[in-house]
From TrEMBL:
It comes from the Bacteria. Involved in the transposition of the insertion sequence. Pfam families: HTH_21, rve, rve_2. SUPFAM superfamilies: Ribonuclease H-like (SSF53098). NCBIfam families: transpos_IS3. Residues 117-284 form the Integrase catalytic domain. This is IS3 family transposase.
Length: 288
């Protein structure tokens, strides 16, 4: 090819300059033509992992999953391969609505016992909760109330409803209390905002009867419940943003599936690359 171009009065170097291809790159591809790609199997595995994790993982998390499987590989190489294959998470588009249940002081407002201390070495010692709202197809909305353990970021219990009634918070609370009876080793604190649900007498009385400390964020201070806000942000980015609006039932199914995946499969850097359930299980086995 280079010889023919020369005969016509053009130099290969000039052609490559015009099309913007480095000469070294050209010669690399010429020499590699017809040879088997040494990264073929690795590319297949990376593509498999990317799809396995619902296209929610970037190159750093994919690298950690490869290392779990015994592949000692640099994250820069994974980044290069994913870029070459066009594997990129793009779930960062439409935003959901932040639900605000604050209606003033209509019941008991508790002190902020947590005081932004969002870590603990003990399971079920510190729990956080809040309500978020999603828009569905048509005029319907979906309300989610999870209870999250700050020990490992696991969702201990949750409820989904079409309306933000008191049952939205009481049902997961009762489920959580059953877990506490069998597994809590230290007295539990549960933290929330000052929404009317958490000021309600039934919520306050249930916590007191079960010897659970109540804690509340200061008014209009989202940072006091940053761990819960962070979970909502991850949920939105990985499951909701960029997706078409669907019916309430379809979205409910997706949220339920996501929370199960988040608890059991989604790796977390601060948990040494383990999922919340894997971390809890491994820690309990080590303690035993």
């Amino acid at each position: 090819m280079a010889f023919e171009l020369k005969e016509e009065g053009f130099r290969l170097k000039d052609i490559l300059f015009v099309v913007g291809i480095p000469e070294a790159t050209y010669h690399y591809h010429v020499n590699s033509f017809g040879k088997e790609d040494p990264d073929t199997k690795l590319k297949e595995l990376i593509t498999h992992l990317f799809k396995k994790f619902y296209e929610r993982y970037g190159y750093k998390r994919i690298t950690k999953e490869l290392k779990k499987l015994g592949h000692l590989i640099n994250h820069k190489k994974v980044y290069r391969i994913m870029r070459e294959l066009g594997l990129k998470c793009v779930k960062f588009m439409r935003k959901s609505r932040k639900y605000n249940s604050y209606k003033g002081t209509i019941g008991k407002v508790a002190e902020n016992r947590l005081s932004r201390r969002f870590s603990t070495p003990f399971p079920l010692q510190k729990l956080v909760t809040d309500i978020t709202e999603f828009k569905c197809l048509g005029e319907e909305k979906l309300y989610l109330n999870p209870i999250l353990d700050l020990y490992n970021g696991e969702i201990v219990a949750f409820e989904i409803r079409k309306r933000p009634t008191l049952d939205l918070i009481m049902k997961p609370l009762k489920e959580t209390l059953e877990v506490l009876k069998n597994h809590a080793t230290y007295r539990t604190t549960i933290h929330s905002d000052q929404g009317w649900h958490y000021q309600h007498n039934q919520w306050v009385r249930t916590l007191k009867e079960n010897k659970v400390f109540q804690s509340m964020s200061r008014k209009a201070t989202c940072a006091d419940n940053a761990s819960m806000e962070n979970f909502f942000g991850i949920l939105n980015q990985e499951m909701y943003y960029g997706e078409k609006l669907v019916s309430y039932e379809e979205l409910k199914s997706r949220v339920e599936e996501y929370i199960h995946w988040y608890n059991n499969e989604r790796s977390k850097t601060k948990l040494s690359g383990l999922s919340p359930v894997e971390y809890r299980t491994q820690s309990s086995q080590s303690a035993a």
